[in-house]
Write a structure and sequence with these properties.
This protein has 143 residues and is mainly α. The chain is 71% helix and 0% strand. The protein is built from 6 helices and no strands. The longest helix has 25 residues.
Length: 143
Amino acid sequence: MLSVIILRLLFSPSGAIDRVAFSAGVVLLAAAAVGIHHGLHGWSGPFGLGSLGFMMAIAWSAICLSRKRLHDFGWSGLVIPIFLGLYLLAVTVAVFFLDPQALTSWQQAIAAFGLFSGPMIGWLIALAIIPGNGLASTVRTSW
């Protein structure tokens, strides 16, 4: 029974979830990603299909969690592709401003890490701490 709830939380895009469920889902997803990554030991299968499938499952779960959390705010799931588009645009433009020779210093490495992962970490933190409109408590559809 618990496994069905976890699978619905991570893989079903319908419904709404509150902050606690979102945070639990992110922790479960991160633990599963690390565990599966170490379990594969670099195996990617023919043509890298194992790695592609792993990446697609993690991405789908992250999209499902984010969409359900946005639904609790009363927002559309279309905010996700807008955010991802702006993020990819910023990363694409920023690549032209990074000095590859300077990436050996730890300051540049931290700056590059912040640039590339900062928006995603900020997205997760914002979704975890911003209170919703209570739709998760009134609309118990999927998880």
